[in-house]
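Handout, section 4.2: multi-component inputs.
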Amino acid sequence: EVQLVESGGGLVQPGGSLRISCAASGFTFSSYVMHWVRQAPGKGLEYVSGISTNGDITYHANSVKGRFSISRDNSKNTLFLQMGSLRPDDMAVYYCARGSGRHPVVVLDAFDVWGQGTMVTVSP
Amino acid sequence: QSVLTQPPSVSGAPGQRVTISCTGSSTNIGADYDVHWYQQLPGTAPKLLIYADTNRPSGVSDRFSGSKSGTSASLAITGLQADDEADYYCQSYDGSLSGSGVVFGGGTKLTVL
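Output:
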């Protein structure tokens, strides 16, 4: 079964850091572009970051550029998001999502598999 | 405020047909970038419903269909069922934005009466 399982969310103070992870199974992880998408409580979806199959190209929303870093470990089938200088408006459920691979241009592609999400709370 | 505009809510009775619009501009949908649609049932993760404007992934009911014209796209749901009650999001790319350019609509809540 194709599956993405996020972990590492929790409570962090404003200005703090947190690393969340996404464990992939059921497919050849190293062959897929991967992404993070977040959803603030009661709000819509917001793209956060993406990473190429071998990790050499990354994409970031302006709202997180310079503060967040996406990486992957293909030997462990795991995706990471290192979050720094966290702000209250970063509070959200963070979803890991797989690029479908149907479009050759990463930022034009759909996300065909999603994890269940991990909640990041930013509060004093 | 998203560059892709969706109605906050739509509703319909069981068996009816409803449509959800996603209105953009010349720098996103109007530039012929692909539009994708997602369904998010209450308390769950989003699920891909339509990709590249009109295509359904395997396993998605043919009651769901997508279309695109000019600067807008639409999701149609026929034979409305109670378990279609969910939030629906469109996604595309905007070439005028810095950053990744990946954009989502604000979402539409579908209520089945």
